[in-house]
Specification:
The protein has one domain: 3-Layer(aba) Sandwich (Rossmann fold). The protein is about 50% helix and about 10% strand. It has helices at about 20-30, 45-55, 70-85, 105-115, 120-135, 145-150, 160-180, 195-205, 225-240, 250-275; strands at about 10-15, 35-40, 60-65, 90, 140-145, 185-190, 245. Strands 3-2-1-4-5-6-7 form a seven-stranded parallel β-sheet, with helices on both faces. Helix 1 (about 20-30) crosses helix 9 (about 225-240) and helix 4 runs parallel beside helix 7. The radius of gyration is 19 Å and the shape is globular. The N and C termini lie far apart (about 55 Å).
Length: about 280
C-alpha cells in the first residue's frame, strides 16, 4: 500500500513487544519501514524477538521495561529522544491476565493486574504524549479488549475486563484531548489472538499462584487470529486514524446485546420520568 510511505523511517515504541500481539505489531511496522523500539519485561524473549526482526532487515532497539516503573519510562523516552528523535507511534500493549472471581481475588493480584494493564497505559501516555504534542505529530495505539466492550459470560477474568474497559475510556478521552495537536489515538479491541499472555502472567503474578494451566490461544484454532494479522490491521488503523480497531467482526452481536440493554434502560428511565 502506498500509504506505508507515511510510516517509513518513523519510530514505533511497542510495550509487551517480545511476543503475541506486540510482536505481531512490530513485524507489521517493520514491513512498513519503521524503526522499532521493543520494550518488555522478559529479556530472553525480547532478545529472540529482536533477532528475528533484524534478520528480516528491521532496525530494532530493545529495552527491559516494567510499565509500572515511571522512572524507567522517563529514562527510556529520554534515550529515544536523544538517539532517534522521539517516538512517533506509541503502542501501549503490555498486559497480564488472571483467573479470579472478583470477590475472591487477592488484593495483591488486583493491584498487579491493574497496575500493568491500566496503570502502564497511563504511564506510557504520560511519558510519551507530551513530546508528540510538542512536535505536533504522532499516534497512540492502546491495547484494550473485546471484553472491555462487553463482558464475555462464564470467563473468570473479571479484573482483566475492568482494566480493559478503563483502557477504552482512557483512549476515547485522550483522543479528544490531543486531536488539535496533530496526534491520533486508536484503541485496539481484539478477541482471541495467538499469544503467550497466560503463560507470561502465570510466571509473574505475585502472591498466591494461579493454579490453572496456561491456556494461550494458537493461530489456526477457530476464531483465533495470528498476531501478524492483527498487526497489519493496526497499521491500517494508524494510517486511517481509526478510533477503534476491531479485528473480530464476528463479535459484533455480543456488543450489540450490551448496548441494546443500555438503550432499553434509558427508554425505561424516560418512560418513568414522563409518567
Amino acid at each position: 500500500m502506498t500509504e506505508l510511505a507515511h510510516l517509513a523511517g518513523k519510530v514505533a515504541l511497542v510495550t509487551g513487544g517480545a511476543s503475541g500481539i506486540g510482536l505481531g505489531m512490530a513485524s507489521a511496522f517493520a514491513a512498513a519501514g519503521m524503526t522499532l523500539v521493543l520494550a518488555d519485561i522478559d529479556e530472553g524473549q525480547l532478545a529472540t524477538a529482536a533477532e528475528g526482526l533484524r534478520a528480516g532487515g528491521a532496525r530494532v532497539i530493545t529495552a527491559r521495561l516494567d510499565v509500572r516503573d515511571r522512572a524507567a519510562w522517563a529514562e527510556l523516552v529520554a534515550r529515544i529522544d536523544a538517539e532517534l528523535g522521539g517516538v512517533w507511534l506509541l503502542c501501549n500493549n503490555a498486559g497480564v491476565s488472571a483467573f479470579d472471581k472478583l470477590a475472591e481475588m487477592p488484593a495483591q493480584a488486583w493491584d498487579w493486574l491493574l497496575g500493568i494493564n491500566l496503570g502502564g497505559v497511563f504511564n506510557g501516555v504520560h511519558a510519551v504524549v507530551p513530546g508528540m504534542i510538542a512536535r505536533g505529530t504522532g499516534h497512540v495505539v492502546n491495547t484494550g479488549s473485546l471484553g472491555g466492550l462487553a463482558v464475555v459470560p462464564g470467563t473468570p477474568i473479571g479484573a482483566y475486563y475492568v482494566a480493559k474497559a478503563g483502557v477504552i475510556a482512557l483512549s476515547e478521552k485522550l483522543r479528544e484531548e490531543v486531536a488539535d495537536h496533530g496526534v491520533g489515538v486508536s484503541v485496539l479491541c481484539p478477541g482471541p489472538v495467538e499469544s503467550r499472555l497466560q503463560a507470561t502472567s502465570a510466571g509473574t503474578r505475585p502472591g498466591s499462584p494461579d493454579e490453572r494451566e496456561p491456556n494461550d490461544y494458537r493461530a489456526g484454532e477457530q476464531g483465533v487470529l495470528s498476531a501478524r494479522a492483527v498487526g497489519d490491521l493496526v497499521v491500517r488503523g494508524v494510517l486511517e486514524n481509526s478510533p477503534y480497531i476491531l479485528p473480530h467482526p464476528q463479535a459484533r452481536p455480543m456488543v450489540e446485546r450490551r448496548f441494546a440493554a443500555l438503550l432499553a434502560a434509558f427508554d425505561g428511565a424516560a418512560a418513568r420520568t414522563q409518567s
